[in-house]
Specification:
The complex is a heterodimer of chains A (283) and B (334).
Chain A lengths: L1 H9 L1 H23 L2 H4 L26 H37 L1 H16 L2 H11 L6 H9 L4 H14 L3 H8 L4 H37 L10 H10 L8 H29 L8
Chain B lengths: L2 H28 L5 H13 L7 H11 L6 H13 L14 H35 L10 H9 L3 H15 L19 H38 L2 H8 L4 H39 L4 H10 L3 H29 L7
Helix pairs in contact in B: 1-4, 1-12, 5-8, 5-10, 5-12, 6-8, 7-8, 7-10, 8-10, 9-10, 10-11, 10-12, 11-12
């Protein structure tokens, strides 16, 4: 533990990121204990349009949701969407990246060109099509799956590049010469060396997933009944909350979203440093 | 430039167009169990007050014929491809019978205006800032802007937009709260109206500029640091060239290419972000049009906008690719 803390001294951005998430965690934990979340985060739980007060610490919105409770549920749901989408994207991307870089040839060509074409098309636009075709049955898990369907290109490209650079290293030649088969080489030699990259990639794809989910929800393609962060932004725009002077309605999701993104960004920068200490420090 | 390369890029562009059109054709048809025409007629007649089923089957059949939905699927597909190729994206459902393409061309100038202006400004500003941060003889104070700009760059444009609206439009009343021009004025080609346009575009653009400058600065700084170790930099310095010349002619010139590649790669991201900024500001561009179409279940417009944006981004990337040899003579596509 003390060793880890000493490492954080050398890698301050990782420390900042972890601190931000600990703060968010504490915020959620307090709300978890204080509220009946299945009620308070949904409409008609409290009087409408109340500014922050002792009784309603973050105020209430026009439909009578308690914003503190909404933020707790929203943070959890939004992170869940992001992690589900990011994790699925990373798994698909890792498999494809490995297959492409390890076996080369036609497979590599097909995967690489597909990734190149899909990366030039803005993903959010395709997600808009998929989400609007399935919006009547939209829910949290479906949203995560839809986002995951376009979250694998980045990881595929990164992992492919890493495996390509690793496969020519002497230790892999040694492994090959000592008679290990492909499966053993992949799991015993390549994977352990890729772990830091996988971690950094995961942060990247989770960030992308949250970004996409917030965007879709703000456009009105989210699960209408769920109090996620993106849906809160949607209602803020829908009810013109800012023009009515209800700053607290927007302030809560904005602060939480900024914290999530800054936290993920600094953790990502910290993991990059861990994965590749020779690159110059970014933050 | 080799002709084969141009040919390859044209093929890629056509492939993107074909993929975008096919996605638009296939995905909505995968959502089974729903009959959009029947739903539409039902909701219209319910609004009229007399929801009956008399003549419903005939009416649905007639409309299906009109929209060509009674044809076999492969034939529909070919017709669809041919129509989209001519940028005939069908008619809007909520503004029937206005063609989708007309809606898009009405909204396009607005989006084009703020996206081009804010991207150019943030790209130039970020590139210069990044170059200066990495330059040993530049003021040290610039270093302190980095963490601040990076924090901003981690946040989506429209979240920043919400903050700006509250402080600068609602509290301080320095800027209008939304829209593209004052309510009650008629768009005209006069200087006064142009001034109002810029005034209304400032806050949305500012949210994009603030959020994206940091990213450009960071990329440029990385490139400049790499370049400073190069032999030609030492040589230029040893020759006694003036600082300014080394900075602009040697360092920036060479670091610019990856920056432009970065610009090409993040263009889609920028356009998607700009769309959401428009929704937040109620700015009358393509993003707002998309948002409204989603709220009104106007599927032809949604699909039309997505197709149009994908194709135009593909086209911009194609042009940028063709321009690279001009920016960097080392690239010749030989």
């Amino acid at each position: 533990m003390s060793g880890f803390l000493r490492y954080l001294r050398r890698n301050p951005s990782l420390g900042v990121g972890i601190a931000v998430f600990l703060l968010l965690f504490a915020f959620c934990a307090i709300g978890w204990m204080r509220y009946d979340l299945a009620k308070a985060a949904y409409p008609l739980a409290a009087p409408a349009n109340r500014p922050p007060s002792l009784q309603y610490p973050l105020g209430t919105d026009s439909q009578g949701r308690e914003l503190y409770a909404v933020m707790v549920v929203g943070t959890i749901l939004t992170l869940r969407i992001g992690f589900t989408a990011g994790l699925i994207g990373l798994v698909i991307g890792t498999v494809l990246g490995f297959v492409a870089a390890y076996f080369r040839g036609t497979v590599d060509l097909v995967i690489k060109s597909l990734v190149d074409i899909l990366l030039t098309i803005p993903g959010l636009l395709i997600l808009v099509i998929i989400a609007s075709a399935s919006r009547t049955s939209m829910n949290i898990n479906l949203l995560a799956l839809i986002i995951a369907s376009l979250a694998w290109m980045g990881p595929t490209r990164n992992i492919r590049a890493q495996v390509l650079s690793l496969r020519e290293r002497p230790f892999l030649q040694a492994a090959r010469l000592s008679g290990m088969n492909s499966v053993e080489i992949i799991f015993l030699e390549l994977m352990p060396n890729l772990l830091p990259y996988l971690a950094a990639s995961l942060v990247g794809s989770v960030t992308g997933g949250i970004f996409a989910s917030l965007g879709l929800e703000a456009l009105g393609l989210g699960a209408m009944r769920e109090p996620t962060l993106g849906m809160t932004i949607y209602w803020v725009i829908y009810y013109s909350a800012l023009i009515k002077g209800m700053w607290w309605w927007a302030a809560a999701p904005v602060v939480v979203i900024v914290m999530i993104f800054v936290g993920l960004f600094t953790i990502g920068a910290g993991l990059d440093e861990l994965a590749n200490p020779r690159t110059r420090r970014v933050v | 430039m080799r002709l084969t390369y141009v040919f390859q890029r044209v093929v890629l562009l056509l492939a993107i167009m074909w993929m975008a059109a096919s996605i638009n054709f296939v995905l909505p048809r995968l959502a089974t169990g729903r009959d959009p025409i029947r739903e539409r007629i039902l909701s219209e007649s319910a609004r009229g007050g007399g929801a009956t089923n008399i003549g419903m089957t005939e009416m649905v059949a007639e409309y299906r014929k009109q929209f060509g939905l009674d044809e076999p699927l492969p034939k529909q597909y070919v017709t669809y491809l041919w129509n989209t190729l001519r940028f005939d994206l069908g008619k809007s459902l909520s503004n029937y019978p206005k063609p989708v393409m007309r809606l898009i061309s009405e909204a396009l100038p607005w989006t084009l205006g703020i996206v081009t202006a804010s991207t150019l400004i943030s790209f130039t500003l970020g590139t210069i800032l990044g170059a200066l941060i990495a330059w040993p003889r530049a003021p040290r104070i610039l270093q302190y802007t980095v963490p601040f700009l990076l924090t901003l760059s981690a946040v989506p444009f429209y979240i920043l937009g919400l903050i700006l609206i509250y402080f600068f439009a609602f509290q301080l009343k320095w800027f209008p709260i939304g829209g593209g021009y004052p309510i009650g004025t008629i768009p005209a080609f006069t200087l006064a109206f142009f001034g109002k346009l810029v005034y209304h575009a400032l806050l949305p653009s500012l949210s994009m500029i603030l959020a994206s400058t940091g990213g450009w600065a960071l990329g440029m700084r990385g490139m400049m640091v790499t370049i400073q170790g190069e032999d030609y930099m030492n040589y230029a310095e040893a020759k006694g060239l003036p600082d300014r010349r080394i900075f602009f002619g040697y360092a920036i010139r060479n670091a610019l290419l990856p920056q432009t590649t970065g610009l090409a790669l993040s263009l889609g991201h920028i356009v998607a972000g700009a769309g959401l900024v428009e929704v937040v500001f109620g700015y009358p561009g393509i993003g707002s049009l998309l948002g409204e179409s989603i709220t009104r279940f106007d599927y032809t417009t949604i699909y039309g906008i997505v197709f149009f944006l994908i194709v135009s981004l593909g086209l911009v990337l194609f042009i940028l690719d063709m321009l690279y040899p001009l920016i960097d003579p080392r690239i010749s596509y030989e």
